[in-house]
Amino acid sequence: MESPHDYLSHALKQLRQANGWSLTQAAVNTGVSKAMLGQIERAESSPTVATLWKIATGFNVPFSFFIQSENDGSETPVTFSQSNAQMEVRSLLPYDPQLHMDLLEVTLAPGAQSHSSAHEEGVIEQVVVQEGELLLGVAGVWHRLVRGQARQFSADVAHSYRNPLATPLRFHSLIHYLSRPRITN
């Protein structure tokens, strides 16, 4: 089985080629630099979760496309970790093409924060705190959620996740895509 970074490299290259995009066109559509996209395709760089979201949004594919191989037959969820260990995302369920959704588990290190640019128009996210405390910023407004609390929001605006505690934060993120993402296998 290939490493998560090799899988990411192949998935990005496959998407770009399936769309007929050069690295320059992919950079324009995703907002990620041509140099960074090239490094990811060559498995020379590990992107942050925020960068991976930009790529997924630009290609109109679900986030889990980059972290879960649907062809490996494994029931074990695949995890994507940032190289600085501040954030980890695990796909709990692969993208469901009928329901247009991903189910992810997100872990933030103590004191960590992650900023996410606006996703595609119409994307809705629901978060449920499993452990710790989440400060959720949506369009500049902050909401405090503790274990067992949930919040739904429009993810087509900038949003942030912050862990204000000295212990890890773990929450589930259910992402609903308005339009059917373009997935090429």
UniProtKB/TrEMBL annotation:
Pfam families referenced in this protein's UniProt entry, alphabetically: Cupin_2, HTH_3
Q: Which domain of life is it from?
A: Bacteria
Concerning CDD domains, the annotation shows: cupin_XRE_C, HTH_XRE
Residue ranges of domain HTH cro/C1-type in the record? 12-66
Entry-linked InterPro entries: Cro/C1-type_HTH (IPR001387), Cupin_2 (IPR013096), Lambda_DNA-bd_dom_sf (IPR010982), RmlC-like_jellyroll (IPR014710), RmlC_Cupin_sf (IPR011051), TransReg_Diox_bact_type (IPR050807)
Q: Which UniProt keywords apply?
A: DNA-binding, Transcription, Transcription regulation
Q: Does the keyword DNA-binding apply?
A: yes
Query: Any idea what this protein is called?
Result: Helix-turn-helix domain-containing protein
Under the heading SUPFAM superfamilies, the entry gives:
lambda repressor-like DNA-binding domains (SSF47413), RmlC-like cupins (SSF51182)
Q: Any keyword Cytoplasm? A: no
